[in-house]
């Protein structure tokens, strides 16, 4: 039986993408070669790169002032990469500390410059997105984690500032429309909304680069990858190919506006049940901070936890277990989670 995959990442992908990805492993477009064995400088792969970039640009409305890069190292590498490329030692980056991933980005950034944490929800185990804080003048950039995968919170109101935002969008990229002009850098590991693990999408405003004094190793210099059009070294060919298929799928569904509606509808179904059913409660204290991607909840009576887990698993719902730092349950309902998948989980909750 095909399971309904509620895993936080690597995560569910559209069934049609998996089929096409499997076909390409056997034979890429009747070329007689597998996608796994073609050169990253072949014509076939150059076309894949071009189409993937052009889909990113089209779906998000990314203009030529930004470069679109496909790098490796995961979002965790971008925690320090952004700082290395943007921040001189005496300069300050602002941060919203909204979860474990923000905290890691803060730690890494301190290796290269000054950090000013403008607001943090750490004291209450990151159960909300802080909303009252002031943004001082003179920050080089303001780093935000748009969606906190572990704690189930999401930024729904972007900071009001002309300071460029650097955003870790690993767990909600392409899930909704965003005001792109506010962002200096957007980065995301692919393994939630975009494809398999192994590629990191980076969208970087070109005029922010070239202001740091430190010498940068080639692989850690955005400008080198811009110049090499993401083929300075061997890029993750297969993950990029699957990203292309996923972006095609998003486009077929109607783009980001359609994704946004689909995600709102799914999240509402699940949150309504959490709020209605006395057997469950949400872990996010501020409803306005609730994530549309990772829905976190617990059993009101902790003694019920194991039984609910068992019943969800029996109904085919895989990966609903919460992160160890929050406990309870987390249902990750990324773009490619169908409405019917969430309905199945909600029915288990109703029967419970
Ligand atoms: N940021 C967020 C919001 C995440 O959910 C994760 C986990 N995938 C990371 C960063 C770390 O990503 P990676 O494993 O690709 O380094």
UniProtKB/TrEMBL annotation:
N6-(pyridoxal phosphate)lysine PTM positions: 192
Keywords: Amino-acid biosynthesis, Aminotransferase, Cytoplasm, Pyridoxal phosphate, Pyridoxine biosynthesis, Serine biosynthesis, Transferase
Binding site for pyridoxal 5'-phosphate: 75-76, 101, 149, 168, 191, 233-234
InterPro entries in alphabetical order: Aminotrans_V_dom (IPR000192), Aminotrans_V_PyrdxlP_BS (IPR020578), Pser_aminoTfrase (IPR022278), PyrdxlP-dep_Trfase (IPR015424), PyrdxlP-dep_Trfase_major (IPR015421), PyrdxlP-dep_Trfase_small (IPR015422)
Cellular location(s): Cytoplasm
GO terms of biological process kind: L-serine biosynthetic process; pyridoxine biosynthetic process
Entry GO CC: cytoplasm
PROSITE patterns hit by this protein: AA_TRANSFER_CLASS_5
Catalytic reactions on record: 4-(phosphooxy)-L-threonine + 2-oxoglutarate = (R)-3-hydroxy-2-oxo-4-phosphooxybutanoate + L-glutamate; O-phospho-L-serine + 2-oxoglutarate = 3-phosphooxypyruvate + L-glutamate
Entry binding sites for L-glutamate: 41
Cofactor(s) listed: pyridoxal 5'-phosphate
Main EC class the enzyme belongs to: transferase
Family from the record: Belongs to the class-V pyridoxal-phosphate-dependent aminotransferase family. SerC subfamily.
Name of protein: Phosphoserine aminotransferase
Protein species of origin: Neolewinella xylanilytica
Gene: serC
């Amino acid at each position: 039986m095909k399971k309904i995959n509620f895993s936080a990442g690597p995560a569910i992908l559209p069934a049609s993408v998996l089929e096409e990805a499997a076909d390409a492993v056997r034979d890429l477009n009747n070329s007689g070669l597998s996608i796994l064995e073609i050169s990253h400088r072949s014509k076939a792969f150059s076309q894949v790169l071009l189409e993937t970039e052009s889909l990113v640009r089209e779906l998000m409305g990314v203009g030529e002032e930004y470069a679109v890069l496909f790098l490796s190292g995961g979002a965790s590498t971008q925690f320090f990469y952004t700082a290395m490329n943007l921040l001189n030692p005496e300069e300050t980056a602002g941060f919203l500390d909204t979860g474990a991933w923000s905290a890691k980005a803060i730690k890494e950034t301190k290796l290269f410059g000054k950090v000013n944490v403008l607001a943090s929800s750490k004291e209450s185990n990151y159960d909300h997105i802080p909303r009252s804080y002031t943004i001082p003048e003179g920050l080089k950039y303001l780093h935000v984690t748009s969606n906190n995968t572990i704690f189930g919170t999401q930024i729904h109101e972007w900071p009001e500032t002309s300071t460029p935002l650097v955003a870790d969008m690993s767990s909600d990229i392409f899930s909704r429309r965003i005001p792109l002009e506010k962002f200096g850098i957007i980065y995301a590991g692919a393994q939630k909304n975009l494809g398999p693990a192994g590629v990191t999408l980076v969208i970087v405003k070109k005029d922010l680069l070239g202001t740091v004094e430190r010498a940068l190793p080639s692989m850690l210099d955005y400008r080198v990858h811009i110049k090499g059009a993401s083929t300075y070294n061997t890029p993750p060919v297969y993950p990029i190919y699957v990203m292309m298929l996923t972006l095609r799928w998003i486009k077929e569904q109607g783009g980001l506006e359609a994704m946004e509606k689909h995600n709102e509808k799914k999240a509402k179904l699940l949150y309504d049940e959490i709020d209605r059913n006395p057997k469950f409660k949400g872990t996010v204290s501020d409803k306005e901070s609730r994530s549309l991607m990772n829905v976190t909840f617990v059993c009101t009576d902790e003694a019920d936890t194991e039984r609910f887990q068992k019943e969800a698993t029996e109904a085919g719902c895989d990966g609903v277990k919460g992160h160890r730092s929050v406990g309870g349950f987390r249902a990750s309902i990324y773009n490619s989670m169908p409405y019917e998948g969430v309905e199945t989980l909600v029915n288990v909750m109703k029967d419970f």
